[in-house]
TrEMBL record:
It comes from the Bacteria. Keywords: Signal. Residues 50-256 form the SsuA/THI5-like domain. It is found in: Periplasm. This is ABC transporter substrate-binding protein.
Length: 338
């Protein structure tokens, strides 16, 4: 009887000890003093960035002890200005912006450390329905393109040239309309064709105002279209935070890769309160189908060189920059290997 009581008492002590350790670990994870704040600015609000919102909504940043404060700058130049002026710690924007900053002689360059999307996110939309589309149908038409110097415009011109079309000779090319006003310009009757992001392209298709006939992302190949980046000084002073941030991004990328478009739409719908969840799912499915969402955060040399080729083709590459100068893959590689 005494032996039985002794065993029971020992078991109870072990149970209490395990419970205490678990409780302490749980407290460490949620202790406000251990949470590190990260100010993240994105170039625009887009379903194209679904893994970013999944990382927040599913608590992947929180699991890493990070409190991510998300803001939207609505423009590549505004995003970079926010980052450079210390209005944000990390930016999600096109990699071309880091090249522009470097070319201006910055002594604190902006470093790309985690890729989010790996294709262009725009689609070619026609005013009239076309059953058997070929790119030469664009010749002689009025084409409503994106602003000069941005990735959508550069990729657009790259794809057109790939199909034997000189954007400035074979088209009536319109590029003087602000990004936010391009959809309304097309809806009001400007242009035979337009280059649009989602969900606007699908919305126009649903409303009968346009028809998606081709994908610039499929045509242009893999590029570091949008990446997470930070100033070199921030990267050096906050190595632990950057690693935790990258780990959370990778978790989100894997979650997106292994879950359905409907599940992803449900996870991110609060970020798009004015968009029907079914439409969000349709857009996510379109991007998943063409491989737009990177499945890991590594920005490789081939993608970087493809980006510079596209910029050079558009006459927008200020200088060629080596991959190792503005890209840090060590963190992403470490996170992926874990």
């Amino acid at each position: 009887m005494k032996k039985s009581l002794k065993i029971s008492f020992s078991s109870l002590l072990i149970f209490i000890l395990m419970f205490t350790i678990a409780a302490c670990n749980n407290t460490d994870k949620t202790d406000p003093e251990k949470i590190e704040k990260v100010r993240l600015v994105e170039v625009t609000r887009s379903i194209f960035y679904a893994p970013e919102y999944v990382a927040i909504a599913k608590g992947f940043f929180e699991e890493e002890g990070l409190d991510v404060e998300l803001s939207t700058a609505f423009g590549g130049d505004k995003t970079m200005t926010t980052l450079l002026s210390n209005g944000a710690d990390i930016a999600l924007v096109g990699s071309e912006t880091s090249i522009y900053v470097y070319a201006q002689g910055s002594n604190n360059p902006v470093i790309n450390f985690a890729q989010l999307t790996q294709t262009d996110g725009t689609f070619l939309v026609s005013r009239e329905k076309i059953d058997n589309f070929s790119w030469d149908m664009l010749k002689g038409s009025t084409f409503l393109g994106q602003r000069t110097g941005g990735m959508p415009q550069m990729v657009g011109e790259f794809v057109l040239k790939k199909h034997g079309i000189d954007p400035h000779q074979d088209l009536n090319l319109i590029q003087n309309i602000d990004f936010a006003n391009i959809p309304s310009a097309f809806a009001s009757g400007t242009g035979d064709f337009v280059q649009l992001f989602e969900p606007q392209a699908s919305i126009f298709e649903q409303e009968g105002k346009g028809h998606i006939i081709a994908s610039f992302g499929t045509e242009s190949g893999h590029v570091p279209y949008t990446t997470f980046m930070a100033k070199d000084s921030y990267m050096k002073d906050n190595k632990d935070i950057v690693e935790k941030f990258t780990r959370a991004v990778y978790k989100a990328q894997q979650w997106v890769d292994t879950h359905s478009s409907d599940e992803i739409a449900e996870a991110i719908k609060t970020y798009f309160p004015d968009t029907d969840v079914k439409l969000i799912s349709t857009v996510v499915d379109r991007y998943k189908e063409q491989g737009s969402f990177a499945t890991d955060p590594i920005l490789d040399v081939e993608e970087w060189n493809n980006l510079q080729n596209i910029m050079d083709e558009a006459g927008e590459l200020p200088k060629e920059v080596d991959h190792s100068t503005l890209v840090n893959t060590k963190i992403a590689e470490k996170v992926k290997e874990e």
